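Bench log, entry 3. Co-assembly request; chain sequences pasted below exactly as received.
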Amino acid sequence: MYGESSGVSVMSVAERPQLSHLRALESEAIHVMREVAAELEKPVLLFSGGKDSIVLLRLAEKAFRPAPFPFPLMHVDTGHNFPEVIEFRDRRVAELGELLIVASVQESIDSGRAVEETGPRASRNRLQTVTLLDAIAAHGFDAAFGGARRDEERARAKERIMSFRDDFGQWDPKNQRPELWNLYNGRIKKGENVRVFPLSNWTELDVWEYISQEQLEVPSIYFAHERPVFERDAMLYAWREGTELIDGEQIFTETVRYRTVGDMSCTGGVRSRAATLEEVVMEIAATRITERGETRADDRVSEAAMEDRKKAGYF
Amino acid sequence: MTLDLLRFTTAGSVDDGKSTLIGRLLYDSKQVFEDQLEHVAQASARRGGSGALDLALLTDGLRAEREQGITIDVAYRYFATTRRRFIIADCPGHQQYTRNMVTGASTADVAVVLIDARKGVLEQSKRHAFISALLGIPQMVVAINKMDLVDFSRERYEELVEEFEAFARKLRGGSNPRHTEMSYIPISALEGDNVVERSPRLDWYDGQPLLEFLEEVEVAYDHPYDKQARFPVQWVIRPANGGAVPGESGDYRGYAGQLASGALRLGEEVVALPSGLRTRIAAIDTYEGELEEAQAPMSVTLRLEDELDVSRGELICRAEEAPTVSRELQADVCWLNERPLRAGSRYVIKHTTRGATAIVDELQDVVDVHTLERASAPEQLALNDIGRVRLRTSTPLAFDPYRSNRRTGSFILIDEATNETVGAGMVGASAA
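Structure output for the full assembly:
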């Protein structure tokens, strides 16, 4: 019966390959990016050098080449990033020939907009929200692409693909705009913005399979390497000059890799021998622990740590 | 034909065992991670249960939902078996959250409707079934849950199947815009019977357990070769420096979009609507290179033989398969906002990639979700109401009936003043 459609050559269904699930997710994400570029005045793509935003860059290439991206890239730099990631970030941006804006948490602290936490557990994770919202306002961005996925965390599971933020940057999870079919409503007033998550329906494994399929370069810390670490709250943190240890904590060398790339101060490594993309894909397919549970101290504050940060305007 | 990626909805309240069912699917298919399980164990203990893991807590999202024990908004869950990847749109079942159920149903291939075997077919299950049918979900599976609490009674199961079928027959009548296949499975989500593994306690049932059903169910109607090609233009790619593309001479002008249905081939004669401009496909570009043919749901960039004034919002298709192009249409609308829809109201309409202004010329009827009867000429459509309207738009739209194309037959209405998405529309026939 399929052959009856006029204009399409007759071929049985079995001979026609269905789009793989990765290609289907890719196409959905490209569609989202083009909708945002078309309907909003001044989008920006948040690029951290992490695996999810690396995928966003490839999707932007697929959506907009041979033209330049219709938006700049922006990194909210805490000053506590892994040096390998910053080096990779700058190299990747140069290869693409696109513009990168660096919004600095240090500058927010220096200007008094944000106050540094103190003590051995101090983190700049929360402060990023101040810098992010300030940068969005200063540049007049009305849409920000982020690499967040719904499978990461339970508050994220409630997130729309295109998610409205009021003029305080706040998310109201109980009153979200209905998101029907693939029809996104990007209408906002001045001062408001939307956060856009083209990878909403991807899982961590999808991201790695895609990186492997596309042979994308990722920062070296995603692969197994030796580094000095210390153990805290059953997580392995990178030790570096100036790290404050709590009584009894020892520095030792371990072979680790990172499943997520956040600040050195709140991102734990995992013991791993995975040294290639294929080995990472195999490791993720077999893992029994979620990426944020295994590696992020920032989510361990309470049952609703992410929900609270997101309401305040976090990524 | 099976899809590699299957999207399904569930709807109901915690009482139906919906969250338990999802928790059970994730848990028994080994998709629950150790740290999530630890969370659930801690929360189960804190809430002073029987000591058993409360799998329903796996699907809690927002703080308010945990506090009230209800689902407020759609949550999306992901799991995979060796045979398929699944996206669950876990929807609230309460009347006041119907709009969120509509959101979840709009993209689903399968609806899982839960029934409590003790309580029978409640209004909430009917509402979910009606919305699933209205939104054109091709497959509906009715999971008759809590069979452990009715002694796995075959008689009770058959009684409920009969009761639901009576309702489903009405769904298949006039108000149902497309055909929905029905299946029934007796389960106990709490104890795991017939969810992942076949249950010996339900040995009188010879069908598949739920997960196996979801792994194998065919949703062939959405196959791209079933349909006429529809390509809404999203974005025109024109590098500012013209000929900067390696291997290209002259100006590059590409029409980027996602095939909503069907397939397009190189060299085919096509028409852009509503402008009516005709040309041929000169190239189908992707990042990986040029293609001979593109099929839904691929995102590609078309180049056309003639320099035409084609822009965002035009629909490219074969001339002999053109959809209706009109400024008037009739549609079923689900109303999603506290401010009701009334005849004479103006909204922004978004249809495919095209925006326009729409005026409600006539509010024709409203559906009683319980009886499926339509009351004609109501005064308004209030929040969560579903009814038929006639709209007139400021510019022509190129649309298909929703029953034959979910992508080109759907639209949203946006309030001009608040920018909220207030209505979800499904095109019936042209009113013209």
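Chain A touches chain B through 66 residues (CB under 8 Å). The two ends of chain A are 48 Å apart (CA to CA).
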